Every structure is written in structure tokens, then in C-alpha cells.
């Protein structure tokens, strides 16, 4: 598991005292993919359903396409799976519960840098 608090890094960004103990990112490995989460900041409104964004990263494009297609059946595609400047395959879909999912392809070199 990877865990970092917003106040644990030296940065030029202005981080309020109330935000310093919030989770900047935490990642757990699920089925070989690192799934990352973070806390909402006090200046970001939270609405049940869209208060969580899940990012699934994998080096397996078939798995990415499979999970993306499963979620879009009853959900809404926000960005079709496509190549971006940072990823061979990236897309976003909001599931039927209003949760935003991001799917990101990485290669093995990138996986090592995420640890």
C-alpha cells in the first residue's frame, strides 16, 4: 500500500492547515492493478456518488477494455478509451451509481515508478 498525506511533501503549493492531514493519495493493489484514492479538499463540494473517483491502472489493455465496457453498459462514458500524451489507453466512465472511474494503461517501467 502507498500512503501520502497532503502535508507530507515540501512544495510551493499553499496547503491549508486543515488539509495537511488529508490523504493526498493512497494506493492498494487489486488484481495486479494499483487502485488509488484521495480525500476531497475543504474547498471541494462533496456529493454522495461523485465524492469518489477510482483510478484503475493496468498494463493489460484487454482488462482495461473489459472493465470499461462493463461499467459503461449502465453508466455514462465521459471520455472514450483513447491514447493520450501520458498513456497508451485512457478513458473515464461514470457508473450507474454516479462514481467516476478512470482507466489508465501503463508499461512496466511506469509501474515501478508508482511504488
Write the layout of secondary structure elements.
Elements: E1 2-5, E2 23-30, E3 33-37, E4 53-58, H1 61-72, E5 76-82, E6 90-94, E7 100-105, H2 108-114
Parallel strand pairs: 4-7
Antiparallel strand pairs: 1-2, 2-3, 3-4, 5-6, 6-7
Multimeric state: single chain
- The tally of helices reads 2
Q: Report the β-strand fraction as a percent range.
A: 35-45%
User: What is the averaged pLDDT score?
Assistant: 79
Major β-sheet annotation: 7 strands, mixed
Radius of gyration: 15 Å
Structural class: alpha+beta
Terminal residue distance: 9 Å
Overview of the molecule:
With 115 residues, the chain is α+β, with helices and mostly antiparallel strands. The chain has a single domain (2-6, 19-39, 49-114), classed as Signal recognition particle alu RNA binding heterodimer, srp9/1, CATH 3.30.720. The chain contains 2 helices and 7 strands, in the order ββββαβββα. Strands 1-2-3-4-7-6-5 form a 7-stranded mixed beta sheet, with helices on one face. A hairpin with a 2-residue loop joins strand 2 (23-30) and strand 3 (33-37).
Amino acid at each position: 500500500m502507498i500512503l501520502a498525506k497532503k502535508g507530507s511533501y515540501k512544495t510551493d503549493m499553499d496547503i491549508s492547515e486543515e488539509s495537511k492531514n488529508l490523504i493526498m493519495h493512497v494506493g492498494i493493489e487489486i488484481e495486479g492493478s494499483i487502485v488509488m484514492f484521495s480525500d476531497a479538499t475543504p474547498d471541494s463540494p462533496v456529493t454522495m456518488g461523485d465524492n469518489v473517483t477510482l483510478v484503475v491502472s493496468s498494463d493489460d489493455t484487454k482488462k482495461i477494455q473489459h472493465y470499461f465496457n462493463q461499467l459503461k453498459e449502465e453508466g455514462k462514458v465521459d471520455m472514450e478509451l483513447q491514447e493520450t500524451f501520458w498513456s497508451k489507453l485512457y478513458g473515464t466512465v461514470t457508473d450507474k451509481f454516479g462514481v467516476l472511474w478512470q482507466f489508465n494503461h501503463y508499461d512496466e517501467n511506469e509501474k515501478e515508478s508508482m511504488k
